[in-house]
Automatic annotation (TrEMBL):
It comes from the Bacteria. Residues 167-338 form the Bacterial alpha-L-rhamnosidase N-terminal domain. It is an enzyme of class 3 (hydrolase). Residues 793-866 form the Alpha-L-rhamnosidase C-terminal domain. InterPro entries: 6-hairpin_glycosidase_sf, 6hp_glycosidase-like_sf, Alpha_rhamnosid, Bac_rhamnosid6H, Bac_rhamnosid_C, Bac_rhamnosid_N, Galactose-bd-like_sf, Ig-like_fold. This is alpha-L-rhamnosidase. Its EC number is 3.2.1.40. Residues 1-23 form the signal peptide.
Length: 874
């Protein structure tokens, strides 16, 4: 056995480090409410409050905390909390649900936390804020209003109202719920920087409202507010195979708005959506979330949203019934234009056609400017690929569109110029997946690179993790992985940003660990889980796209896809240490598992889609579906125990055992250590999800390794196997082989895509496939998590979740000289880096305050690490 020399940093490096620089001394930082910084418009009556302890000293930990909440900031400064004062709690918790006096709608609350460090010294935080929103439909003053057109009207409706601010104002908020999409302007300036508000939901059951701070935009005296509405998923006019045009909620967009003004004298005023608003059509002559947006600059009404505009030709609005019984706050990271991307090149194909290349595949939109004769029509065709003739090729992404005519071409914005100088266009209510933009003008035109700008658009979730290695291909795979993930995050995780934009459940849970290692995404996933609950049938069945207008309750929406309802809450618990996702979804998980049990009396099920898009080999549908059934039962049993539902814990523990036994009885060949026909997917899934009997794990892992080598040391899996294979190998004695698969640059592999120039993940291993060929998909994205789990070795500990205790088991694989990761977990930033120097490995680890780690070295030996910096030589 190799000799191990372990030097804990408290004695060596860490001691020198902590005395060489000023140590951070225990102050609580990053105070958040509902995982958001100083949020406004919170609905929940017991919001979660979180913080981190900033203390770089060795062994730093929190011995106690005190939370103080009040409506007066100065009271909080002086440690007075009339709303809530927890008193000194001798706990290390950094996540606490509010439990003070009843919170009131539209009220601003100030709070801070005092923590006591390892020396018993009190360390107060800065003051943070959270502000409550409507807290129920009873508090709305406005009416649901719309114009007089029906679902077939192509033009977008515009609305306006003027009003007076007669007293000195303290602050002002807009609360707006929309069936469809909205963009708001105040005195001619756009309100906020969000895109595609509000997020897509099951509109006949839940609509989200958005809160905006307009204090700085509102002016004393006369003001004008404008609202323009988009169809979004609410009025899906284009026809496609998903039948959104037949959604039961479909109607002309409408909105309900309350504009609250709080004056210096303490009085309040509400400017509400009412019949005194006026409406008209304007420059947006067509908008479709699925296809594109069309804009006629000649029809734009300049100044429509400023004071003094002549709206005598505008119509009165009409009342509409409320679209849904539930209107709740949009408390999540919004969609934004996050990155501006200048074209790498522009090529003139002829005197009226130009090809722009952004150099990378993104989800988002383009901002286009041009000058030309009035009536000149320009088509901006967005595509991922080029044809052999050098023009854009949409054939890989328009395959599910079912147009009834040629007036709404796929991913093609249409702009009609005014002839009055430079016209600027950027769609308000659409996004696309693309790298190339072909601009086709109806008349000759001169364009340059400066006429177009691309915007990478997605839910603006904070990045919290990254990896870096001596293998440039691994680095590029990780970068492309994150590009694909963000390209498919629009208030819910999607499969692709061009062809479908659907919330495929399987894609969502295949990538959940990749998501949570790289981004602070809990707000988006909790919203999506609410969509799950809204979509669930009374018998427990879920559709395999969520939200849906009705499509997806078919025959294949089984366990391998809709296990999102169990797998995602469980991972949120592991990564955040927060029981609420499990509590909120417990009944839904239970109904789902009970349904599978009713249709699977012998413990096995064939309900599912199977190993979608394999390289070449098909795996047993009953085996893979039953493994996910087992996984769901295990999660439910664990959740029952955590929530002290003892009878359920016993019941579902027994069910999980029954399913596991049924799988092994039918599919496990003990003598040959094989499952079913012994495909890579069958073996790796059995290993990763814990189906293999404990005393047979080593033999099955050996069989998997032998199968991979027999297949030419390359993958032969679809989406289910891609989730499992790298983990199954690295966690069971074959990390070098797993790394060999992960770092290949020839077909079939993740690296083959990158070597071919891809900047996002593809939908098919085969670059020359003729179907399933989107160039921006996330369903093979588990590798992004594997980099952290295997090469970095970081995993949450389910017995001390939220990285209270960090499991560290890095694999120092052959062929890799250095590897490092950074991950900003709930307790603070975790860092680890290792480098090879001859026969030795040098490992540096930083553990955040108030947490610890269990380090497992390659020979199986363990070391318990305190908070602080550690240097280990192996």
């Amino acid at each position: 056995m190799r000799e191990i020399n372990t030097f804990i940093a408290l004695m060596l490096f860490g001691l020198l480090f902590s005395t060489a620089v000023l140590a951070k001394n225990g102050k609580p930082v990053q105070l958040k409410c509902e995982y958001l910084t100083d949020p406004i418009g919170i609905d929940i009556s017991n919001p979660r409050l979180t913080w981190k302890m900033e203390d770089s000293r060795q062994g730093a930990f929190q011995t106690a905390y005190q939370i103080i909440v009040d409506t007066d900031s100065m009271s909080v400064v002086h440690n007075l909390g009339t709303m809530w004062d927890t008193g000194k709690q001798a706990e290390s918790d950094i996540l606490v649900s509010y439990a003070g006096n009843r919170l009131q709608p539209f009220t601003r609350y100030f709070w801070k936390v005092i923590v006591w460090d390892r020396d018993g010294k009190a360390r107060p935080s800065e003051i943070a804020v959270f502000e409550m929103g409507m807290m129920g439909v009873a508090h709305w003053k406005g009416a649901w209003i719309s114009d007089h057109h029906d679902i077939h009207q192509r033009e977008a409706p515009y609305f306006r109202k003027e009003f007076m601010v007669k007293k000195n104002m303290k602050y002002a908020r807009i609360y707006i719920a929309t069936a469809g999409l909205h963009e708001i302007s105040l005195n001619g300036d756009r309100v906020g920087d969000h895109r595609l508000d509000p997020m897509y939901t099951r509109y006949d059951r839940r609509i989200l409202y958005v809160t905006y701070d307009i204090t700085k935009q509102l002016q004393s005296g006369a003001n004008a507010i404008g609202v323009v509405l988009g169809n979004g998923w609410y009025n899906h006019q284009a026809k496609a195979v998903w039948n959104f045009d037949q959604a039961p909620w479909r109607n002309r967009p409408a909105f309900c708005m309350d504009l609250h003004i709080t004056y210096d004298d303490g009085s309040t005023e509400v400017i509400a959506s009412e019949r005194d608003w006026k409406t008209s059509l304007g420059g947006i002559i067509s908008n479709n979330i699925y296809t594109a947006e069309h804009y006629d600059t000649r029809l734009a009404q300049a100044g429509w949203d400023v004071v003094g505009f002549d709206d005598s030709k505008w119509q009165q609005v009409m009342y509409r019934s409320a679209p849904a019984p539930l209107v709740t706050a949009q408390a999540l990271h919004p969609i934004r234009n996050v990155n501006a991307i200048s074209p790498q090149s522009v090529r003139k194909l002829n005197d009226s056609t130009y090809l722009y290349d952004l150099g990378r595949n993104i989800a988002g939109m383009t901002r286009f400017s041009a000058e030309g004769e009035a009536g000149t029509t320009l088509k901006l065709i967005h595509a991922e690929r080029l044809g052999e003739d050098g023009h854009v090729d949409l054939s890989n992404i328009d395959v599910y569109y079912r147009p009834t005519d040629d007036t709404d071409p796929f991913q093609t914005d249409i702009v009609i110029l005014s002839g009055k100088g430079v016209d600027i266009f950027m769609p308000k209510f659409n996004y696309k997946g693309f790298r190339y933009i072909e601009v086709v003008s109806s008349t000759p035109i001169e364009l340059t690179k400066d006429n177009l700008m691309g915007y990478f658009m997605h839910s603006d979730v904070p990045p919290i993790g990254n990896i870096k290695s001596s293998d440039s291909l691994i680095n590029r795979i990780a970068w492309a992985n994150n590009n694909s993930y963000l390209s498919n995050l629009f208030g819910y995780p999607t499969d692709c940003p061009q062809r479908e934009k659907n919330g495929w459940t399987g894609d969502g849970h295949f990538a959940i660990e990749t998501a949570l290692y790289n981004f602070d995404g809990i707000t988006v996933y909790e919203k999506w889980l609410a969509d799950h609950r809204d979509e669930q049938q009374p018998n427990g069945v879920l559709p395999d796209i969520i939200p849906t207008g009705g499509w997806g309750y078919g025959t294949a929406n089984g366990t391998d896809w809709t296990s999102t309802i169990a797998i995602i809450p469980w991972n949120l618990y592991l990564f955040y240490g927060d029981l609420r996702p499990l509590k909120d979804n417990y009944d839904a998980i239970k109904r789902y598992v009970d349904y599978v049990t009713r249709i699977s009396p012998d413990g096995l099920t064939s309900w599912g889609r199977g190993d979608w898009v394999p390289v070449k080999t098909t795996s047993s549908l009953e085996l893979t579906s039953s493994i996910y059934y087992y996984t769901d039962a295990v999660i439910l049993a664990k959740a029952a125990k955590l929530l002290t539902r003892d009878d359920d814990h016993l019941k579902y523990t027994a069910l999980a055992r029954k399913v596991r036994d049924a799988i092994n009885s039918k599919y496990f060949d003990e003598e040959r250590a094989l499952y079913a026909s012994g495909t890579q997917t069958e073996l790796s899934m059995a290993l990763m999800w814990g189906v293999v009997p404990d005393d047979k794990v080593k033999a099955v892992a050996k069989s998997l390794a032998e199968r991979v080598r027999a297949d030419g040391s390359q993958i032969d899996v679809g989406v289910l196997g891609a989730k499992a294979i790298l983990n199954a190998l690295s966690e069971n004695g074959y990390p070098d082989l797993a790394y060999q698969l992960a770092s290949r640059d020839t077909y079939p592999s993740w690296g083959a895509w990158i070597a071919a120039g891809a900047t996002t993940f593809l939908e098919n291993w085969d670059l020359h496939a003729t179907r399933d060929i989107s160039d921006n998909h996330m369903m093979f994205g588990e590798i992004g998590a594997w980099f952290f789990k295997a090469l970095g070795g970081i995993k949450p500990d389910e017995h001390a979740p939220g990285f209270k205790n960090i499991l560290l088991q890095p694999h120092f694989v052959k062929g890799l000289d250095t590897f490092s990761f950074r991950f900003d977990g709930p307790y603070g930033e975790i860092k680890s880096s290792w480098r090879r120097n001859g026969e030795k490995i040098y490992l540096d680890v930083v553990i955040p305050a108030n947490s610890g780690a269990t380090l497992i070295l390659p020979d199986g030996s363990k070391r318990n690490l305190q908070a602080g910096t550690h240097a280990i030589i192996w």
